[in-house]
Design a protein that fits this description.
alpha/beta, Rossmann fold, three-stranded parallel β-sheet
Length: 177
């Protein structure tokens, strides 16, 4: 569910599909961007065109159904100086819909989500991504526990809980304290 751009490590996701030994495993991609053509070519070159489906951009009102249909949400973000200080909202979106999440092992992901919640992998490493996916598939009980733990983190960071802290901070800054 995103743009296929250079800030997102889509090649590692395609490589993981190629190496994850799961029968009837399919990767469905929604989105658009400047990397889409090269990703389609990569899928063909890896003989994954029967397992990787590109749907292109879908209407915003169709996004919840597309996420609901998924088993695992992947947030494959490249590591750079910008992503050191950012956090993919995809993680929160997948968690809000009770999906297992696999995300790049970036500083804010590690800081925000404790062990046993979001599954992580080394950014750009298709083999590590594949292993993270395999671990989720192989252990349904651990996967359910991870979904619950991730959901707890996301609920704890919900706007309903953070709004008062945010307004207090703005008030203090406005008063010069």
């Amino acid at each position: 569910m995103s743009r296929f751009t250079s800030s997102v490590s889509r090649s590692s996701a395609s490589g993981a599909v190629a190496t994850t030994p799961v029968p009837a495993h399919q990767s469905i991609r929604h989105g658009r961007g400047d990397s889409e053509a090269s990703l389609r070519e990569r899928a063909v070159a890896l003989r994954l065109d029967d397992r990787v489906v590109f749907h292109g951009r879908i209407p915003i009102e169709d996004v919840p159904a597309a996420v609901a249909a998924a088993d695992i949400g992947i947030a494959p973000t490249r590591h750079d100086e910008f992503t050191d200080v950012s956090l993919s909202t995809k993680i929160f979106e997948y968690a809000a819909m009770d999906k297992s999440v696999v995300a790049s092992r970036l500083p804010l992901v590690r800081h925000t989500f404790p062990s046993g919640s979001v599954s992580t992998y080394e950014p750009g490493d298709a083999d590590d991504l594949s292993l993270a996916i395999e671990r989720l598939i192989a252990d349904p009980l651990a996967r359910e526990a991870a979904v619950a733990r991730t959901s707890d983190v996301v609920q704890g960071l919900a706007w309903e809980r953070e709004a008062e802290r945010y307004v207090d901070l703005v008030d203090r800054l406005a008063r010069g304290r």
